[in-house]
Recover the amino acids of this structure.
């Protein structure tokens, strides 16, 4: 994979390892995040949200990743700054009803959401994952 900093180490899960296991020094990421455009190092906005709510990357539902990565692209391509305060002004984090321990960014006002057209069914998104470790995983 190109673009991965040399300080980031990736590996596939070992035979019996599950995505929700606590494996010291390793962080689980789902493969679908790469399809959505995720790249290392972890974007600052994503790091801030995860730290604020004390979540692991794998606890965010696909549409939450869509929103955060879309905002990151807007920041990078149009020099528009979206801080955590802006995100939390427009969205709140809610535990997914059918998937305990997983969270989704929900618009406070559907008509004024920052990112639209995020609804896509990723039925098997939890099937493929990998582990990463290294300084950029923890973010700024």
């Amino acid at each position: 994979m190109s673009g991965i900093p040399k300080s980031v180490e990736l590996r596939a899960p070992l035979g019996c390892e599950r995505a929700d296991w606590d494996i010291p020094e390793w962080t689980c990421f789902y493969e679908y995040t790469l399809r959505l455009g995720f790249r290392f190092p972890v974007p600052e906005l994503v790091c801030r949200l995860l730290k604020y709510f004390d979540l692991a990357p794998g606890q965010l539902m696909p549409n939450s990743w869509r929103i955060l990565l879309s905002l990151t692209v807007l920041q990078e391509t149009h020099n528009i700054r979206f801080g955590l305060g802006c995100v939390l002004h427009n969205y709140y984090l809610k535990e997914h009803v059918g998937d305990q321990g997983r969270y989704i960014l929900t618009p406070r006002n559907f008509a004024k959401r920052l990112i639209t057209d995020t609804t896509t069914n990723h039925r098997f998104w939890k099937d493929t994952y990998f582990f990463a470790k290294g300084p950029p995983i923890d973010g700024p």
Q: What stands out?
A: The chain is about 30% helix and 15% strand. The chain has a mean pLDDT of 88. The beta strands are 9-11, 27-30, 91-95, 103-107, 129-133. Residues 12 and 123 are 21 Å apart (CA to CA).
